[in-house]
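quick q for whoever's on today - can somebody do inverse folding on this one?? i tried earlier but teh output was garbage lol. tokens:
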């Protein structure tokens, strides 16, 4: 199911905050604009009792979405969500909000705040589905497209990094002499010779680049960037993903060792502990040795 997995940026903090913020404004605007087109809507502004129900519905709906996205964020390391689960998750949000709207509608009718005529709770629920779908799913799709464009831009920046002008002599024996990394804002943070780079480690929303300086001393540098972006940008280079948390420089691998639970890599620096190869990436790593 890995090929159906959603992009990581959809569950990152930045992406979820952007989605919730855009959805909050979009849904509020749509909620007010749609009032004339719904015969059982009780949305209102001002100091009326109906406004109290409107405000309650909006705030509770927003809280539900925030809690839902928060759960989606904190569980991102526990399990990988595929597209079917992601769509189902968002549709469940729509259904819960429609149930909330139906409950408040019946309550408002019982209190004499609004008159719902002969509409049954089922009628109210089905009618609200259309409006909730537009108010939530449309901004979700727009936000996803925006995040995809931003993520693609980051990848392009990294892919173009190899064309950066340098005052160092160019060694034509290797097409990729420099690994230049940008943060999530598109700012270049690190440019290190491939021959000096050992591996890159994921640390939540950051990556840690482990490399040696000209004196041979081990260094590390932290950048706010996704490991997935680096993997995709340097796909045809010696930088290979071997674990959910690691990308290794295959030129610095000294030993490939088979252990009881799988394979491990020893790099040509004794200060670096063995790096585990997980089953997901084993075939890709082993193919490098076959070649």
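ok took a stab at it. sequence:
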């Amino acid at each position: 199911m890995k090929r159906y997995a959603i992009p990581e940026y959809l569950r990152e903090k930045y992406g979820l905050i952007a989605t919730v913020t855009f959805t909050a404004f979009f849904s509020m605007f749509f909620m007010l604009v749609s009032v004339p087109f719904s015969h059982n809507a009780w949305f209102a502004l001002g100091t009326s009792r109906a406004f109290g129900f409107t405000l309650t519905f909006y705030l509770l709906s927003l809280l539900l979405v925030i809690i839902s996205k928060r759960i989606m964020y904190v569980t991102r390391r526990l399990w990988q969500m595929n597209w079917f689960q992601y769509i189902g998750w968002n549709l469940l949000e729509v259904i819960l909000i429609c149930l909330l709207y139906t409950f408040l509608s019946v309550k408002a009718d019982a209190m004499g705040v609004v008159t719902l005529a002969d509409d049954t709770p089922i009628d109210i629920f089905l009618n609200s589905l259309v409006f909730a779908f537009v108010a939530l799913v449309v901004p979700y799709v727009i936000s996803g497209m925006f995040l995809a464009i931003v993520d693609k831009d980051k990848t392009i920046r990294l892919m173009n990094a190899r064309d950066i002008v340098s005052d160092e002599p160019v060694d034509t024996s290797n097409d990729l002499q420099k690994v230049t990394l940008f943060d999530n804002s598109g700012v270049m943070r690190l440019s290190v010779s491939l021959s000096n780079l050992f591996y890159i480690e994921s640390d939540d929303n950051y990556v840690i680049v482990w490399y040696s300086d000209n004196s041979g001393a081990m260094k590390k540098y932290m950048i706010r960037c996704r490991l997935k972006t680096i993997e995709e940008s340097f796909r045809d280079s010696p930088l290979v993903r071997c674990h959910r948390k690691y990308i290794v420089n295959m030129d610095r691998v000294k030993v490939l060792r088979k252990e009881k639970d799988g394979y491990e890599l020893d790099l040509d620096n004794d200060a670096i502990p063995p790096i585990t190869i997980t089953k997901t990436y084993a075939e890709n790593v082993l193919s490098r040795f076959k070649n």
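fwiw The radius of gyration is 26 Å. also The CA atoms of residues 75 and 176 lie 36 Å apart. so keep that in mind when u check it
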